[in-house]
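Weekend entry, working from home. Most of the wet-lab plans are on hold until the incubator is repaired, so I used the time to fold the two sequences that have been sitting in the queue since the last round of cloning. Logging both here for the record. First:
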Amino acid sequence: MCGIDVTVVTESADLPTVKEVSLDASCPVCGTAGLRMRSMALEIPYFGGALQTTILCGACGFRHGDVLLTNEGSPTRHRLRVRGSQDLSARVVRSSSCTVRVPELGAVMEPSMRSEAFISNAEGVLRRFRDILGFLARNSDSEARRRAARKSLDTLQAMIDGRQPFTLVLEDPSGNSAILHEGATVHALSERAASKLKRNAFTMELRPDAPRARASR
């Protein structure tokens, strides 16, 4: 995959420069040639330089975003105990290869070809889970699963409101994800542990009878 032309989309003293490149590649969804990639250099506090990229297909609307760190690290696990509303603003950098877990919900967000990177905060991550749970509450294939999703939505709202503590875990085999908060812990993942992380599915595991971690302060 290689670029054949470069266009500067925005350039000003106040905004980062966004560059657009035409790629010699076909869309993985519709097969149409002529993908475009937009990129923007970022400086993430406490984390260093990064490149935010978005690949776009003008034919079918396919898009894929990612955040690439200038200095790619080893596989890592970041963990934060969110004990109240003051911790909900913790900055979260999630690459497209990262698995996100909230054990108290029994919820796992896993990467896929179409999963996108994002830069958000702990509350924003919960809101992404809420969107998925809302879909499951309406469209799961059994009443038991729909009931479990509705129950989890109540728990999730209490977390968003800062009334219930929870654990946020990021596991990334590329080392391109992080939780930027003084209370967050970082541990290296072994190659064996990293190899067990899913890289080809986007799922929300929600089993009515599955044991869940207890929230603690």
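Second, folded right after the first finished:
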Amino acid sequence: MTLPQDHPQADAAAVPPPGCPAHDLVRLYGGEAEADPAGLYEKLRQQHGPVAPVLLEGDVPAWLVLGYRENMDAARTPTRFSRDSRIWRDMLDGNIKPDSPLIPMLGWRPDCVSQDGAEHQRLRAAVNDSLARFDKHGIRRHIQRYANQLIDGFAAAGSAELLGQYAQHLPMLVLTRLFGMPEEVGPRLVEACTGLIKGGEKAMAYHEYINQVLGELTEQKRANPGHDFASWLIAHPEGLAADEVLNHLRLVLIAANETTTNLIANTLRVVLTDPRFRASLTGGLMTIPDAVEQVLWDEPPLMVCPGRFATGDMEFGGQQIRQGDLLVLGLAAGNADPAVRPDPATPVHGNRSHLAFSRGPHECPGQDIGRAITDTAVDALLVRLPDIHLAVPEADLSWTSSTWSRHLDALPAKFTPRRSVPTAATAAGGGSGNGKAPSSAEGRIPPTVPAQRGPSEAATARPLPPPAPAGLRGLIRRIFGR
């Protein structure tokens, strides 16, 4: 797409879509996109309808799909909208630089997300089968134990920053366990995953660091397999190559960590600030899973999902799409489409027809694990600290947005201090044992991202903790209607 000659990125862009002057294109990064993404989506909907021309980082042209029906069509029809970025026209024309922050999100890789048809089915089967081997009750026991460890780290203080001390660490603690990695690598991977989704000049360094850690893990699991996701991928009958295993580990790690962190934080914020939810929860009229689904409608963990590539010239959503054009799925915009939600204030309890996990053959395979982590995280916090409340006015909360996601900067809370008492969930071992989230200094990736030691096998042999005591289960049922 070529921009006007006086535009600083004119030489690196392609031709603007027919009927869409380049100066009218809106950037889906920086400025208004970061300050008020939802407002920007609605402005674009009013101006262009269900599909709008936008610019991504580096002023790379794309189509943002805003309509619910159009999102469903693009996600469900790989014959028209492929996930294979090797047909991306701007990439073929040399308009995408090798160090572009879009490459980690949109570049082709040997994983199921980048494939369609039979090859997609082969790789997706390996992921689905390997995830299905986990015992669901065992996963919930892990989540419960790690949640209690983190809560123990701040329960006596009477206050906590729930994003930095809780929501950011719980998903990665669970994922490192499921991957067969030591918990000590978690803080650096949290930073790397968050930085990659955020984009910017460090995105490629974070991308390379994640690949390095997972490459070392793959080599170790080939030599010494365990009962974990990495080992099961390697041993799957579909016979995944080393780079295929690595890239599927990367896919699950990045997607599950970022989205689950956002889902936990957003659900906690709603529970702590919206009187409708708090009253319903304490009155037993609404379960935590219901609250999670409401958040998935209103604030999906990924606002925009990369990406689809047109397999031919077509008319779509009132726009003339050319072969090789990039489309990105506006999950948040689709969920807010007036065609399906004329009144956004109407509750959608139990309704899972949202787009938060995308749709079609590439629908998120780990969504049930994400829901389980979020459900258990919120349950555990409210059971342990039943009078927890926001420590600042809701208006003082702030967010940071990128093209792909929007997340809280902090979620400070207060509660009655409580002494940490070892329970069956926390006394079974695992982790550092101190119940504290690792400090940012311990887990910060230096700018050069030096080589790290490979993950050890020490964390893979710990026994599962016993089920939560009957008294705790009964308390959960009384409070949450479980």
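Plan for Monday: verify the second prediction. The mean pLDDT is 83.
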